[in-house]
Amino acid sequence: MASVELINVSKSYGNVQVLRDINLSLEQGEFVVFVGPSGCGKSTLLRMIAGLEDITGGELRIDGAPMNDVMPARRGIAMVFQSYALYPHMTVYENMSFGLEQAKLSTPEIEARVQAAAKMLQIEELLGRKPRQLSGGQRQRVAIGRAITRDPRVFLFDEPLSNLDAALRVDTRLEIAALGQRLPDTTMIYVTHDQVEAMTLADRIVVLNGGNVEQVGTPMELYSEPASQFVAGFIGSPRMNFLSGAVAEAHGAVTYGIRPEHIALSSDAGDWAGKVTLTERLGSDTFVHAEVEGIGAVNVRIEGRADVSAGQAVFLTPDAASVHLFDAAGRPVAGRPDA
Amino acid sequence: MKPPLWQTIGFYTLVGLIVLQAVFPFYYAILTSLEDGQALFEVNYLPKALNLANYQAMLTEGVFGKQILNSVFVATVVVILSLFLAVTAAYALSRIRFRGRGLLLLTVLSVSMFPQIAVLSGLFEVIRYFGLFNSLWSLVFSYMIFTLPFTVWVLTTFMRNLPVEIEEAAIMDGASSFTIIRRVFLPLMWPAMVTTGLLAFIHAWNEFLFALTFLSTDSQRTVPVAIALISGRSEFEIPWGNIMAASVIVTLPLVALVLVFQRKIVSGLTAGAVKG
Amino acid sequence: MAETAKKSRLSRSRTRSAWLFLAPMLVTLAVVAAWPLGRTIWFSFTDASLDLMSDARWVGFRNYLEYVEWGDGEGQYYGLLADARWWRSVWNTILFAVVSVSFETLFGLVIALVLNQQFRGRGLVRAAVLIPWAIPTIVSAKMWAWMLHDQFGIINDMLQGLGLISQPIAWTASPDTAMVAVLMVDIWKTTPFMALLILAGLQMVPQDIYEAAKLDGVPAWRVFRKITLPLIMPAVLVAVVFRTLDALRVFDIVYVLTPNTDATRTMSVYARENLFDYDQFAYGSAASTLLFLVIALITITFIMATRMDLEGKRS
Ligand SMILES: Nc1ncnc2c1ncn2[C@@H]1O[C@H](COP(=O)(O)OP(=O)(O)OP(=O)(O)O)[C@@H](O)[C@H]1O
Ligand SMILES: [Mg+2]
Fold first, then answer.
1. Quick one: CATH architecture of B63-273?
2. B134 at C interface, C-beta within 8 A
3. Average pLDDT over residues C36-43
4. Are residues C97 and C241 in the same domain?
5. Which ipTM value was assigned to this complex?
6. B76 vs B65: CA distance, rounded Å
7. Would the N or C end of chain C have less CB density within 10 A of its end CB?
């Protein structure tokens, strides 16, 4: 039985439809990431699962039971907010116990749960502090701790890392991944617009675009078999090159897609002749931007160093097996092109 | 770059004038209140006497002490009642989306614009009907007409600015609307409550028209009416010294409060921007 | 509507709490505001008197306007709208509102601009400016009545000392100066409120605008006219409207400072006199009703004109 099930779920604000006929089925214990550009409806979808937004149409089920008309606190879910949403006037302990108190648990039971969660997140020394006496990372942990004490069936995260600085973000990401493993029976739903977070955390990714589900699949499926030009462009960094014109028409397509890492660069021979316009060196990788005659701008990713500089003539060779072809509507063109 | 000297002098002259006009009348009232007998009828710019006879007269003879207590009682009860009613109402108006909310806010705002005189005859009838005429409760009751819309309006503005996610976290934690107000919002609202309460207290303390109309005996009156009605047997026997002493007594606490809570009052006034 | 049918339990329970939370306030406002207002309007169409309120009889518009025939083809209009004292009080009220609000705005603007500068002792000056606002209206009226006293008043003494007048002026008693006295006290008392509201508007003007203007060498007066003034205009406007509504219902200052004179009697004072002093309860109610109508009209116009942001969506 699926843990969370969405059947033809839709959402409108007045006359504006922001989500259309969403069908999803999440297994128990799965780590699912909703990803998509800003405004595509990720948060709205998450908040509908949480019960903070009305469901305009369709049905939501958790463990088989319909949830459309169940109060948020009774859905067996917990949510970690983007701004943490800790109660500013309560200590960490009170923040974590508030929900349990509302559920009328006994004091020893509450104490035990809070201590267990605090231990798991290593925030035992912080229990007596107020939120303003905590660092950003510590607040984030308390927010997660508050969610854990509720012992939820489903864990919801709305962009939990976006208020942290870059270094802390990586650490916390790893911790959330570890949390997913420590709670193997809890379903995790995680919203982000950052595809790196999505790729690293997810068992399965749901790509949303303009209120529709574009594709659902494992990170590798999305990477190697994107179901649309949108997904192909959204997943993977740097972005896939999209070329149009003769090179695409030669394969019976409107758009010819090739990832920067699937192009070989040579100074003396290759399929496409071009000129380097710019190189970006990251140490581990080098991004070479080239202008190819008759094709246009192409970005190439080279592992390690590449000793090319702007103005230099180069030859590029796409890996034929990794080419993606799309029609005018952005749908994949059936069949891989022959080399 | 330093501004030219004449500009600096001009600026500080202006500042001096502003301070002088603001402070002088109260200063002069204090000065007068300390004079007695003949000294009263000579114009002095600097303190000449330090005579507490006027204060003694006001506080020991007659019912002025009782009248101060009346004012304190009315203003305090009015503030407590209107804050109590306003907190829940403000939560509903600022945090819950429901049909008719805009209209309700409009109603609250329009009531705060009501000229008091427009309800005077109707209120007079209601108060007589409930047997509250010449009772302090008549004022507690009637002052709601201006303190309640004012407190609701200001608290609504304040509550609107509290973060939405905190409330949603509380909802996820299973807190009812009432629990959210009591356990989550109220502790965050104390500064706003103090400010609003203080402003409502000042309004109630200063009110004149209702107090003049609904109370009829000296011992029931509140201080503004009491001061307004102090008179002598003729134009030439008005006890100005006593009047000034009474004025200083009822004003000093207010001035002190206002100076202490300066910042809060300014923010409350601007948030409300409803009533002077 | 299909959509309302699908409101979740949470929405429904929140809507229910909303009405529950609002009920006490709404009941209170109904009893202290709506019902009395309705009764006032009703009384204005009856022959109610102070002692006989409950069995007042409907008399139509007689309190407002009535033409009485004398039988010989001649007649006369009676009623509020034909009462010269009423029209005098209307005029007094409007004069008071216009003049006091104009001066308060002007002085308030000057004080706000001063307080918006950085200078030593600014906190003290702001505190001092607040004092007139903190003084109860009645007390200010009495304080000024003493300062304006014709024989022993310090104002006359000052003016004579400066050689501006040769004879003491009976400020509050003389019909020529009574309104000036009332205006003076009101302007003194209420300017701080205006200054605070305008100052709040001023402080929202981003500082870098001034710095940019300074770098461009724009003269101070032009900066004020072209940048500051337009930016604080909305705040000033709101303050002016609120103050105007407040000024139109003025009662205490006039009643205490200049009792019983045609020169300053305002609509509120006129109404109360009739209600409680002359035992013309119905007639006074009619005056109250008219004042209410005037203020309601201005309020509605203002709310419509600014399409006021009641739900705080834009903030
Ligand atoms: N209360 C509301 N009323 C009307 N429209 C809304 C409301 N809330 C959200 N929307 C609209 O719904 C759409 C989806 O919003 P949502 O917050 O779910 O986007 P998102 O994918 O989470 O974006 P982001 O990455 O920026 O957080 C947006 O176009 C937004 O403008
Ligand atoms: Mg979002």
1. Orthogonal Bundle (1.10)
2. no
3. 92
4. yes
5. 0.87
6. 17
7. N
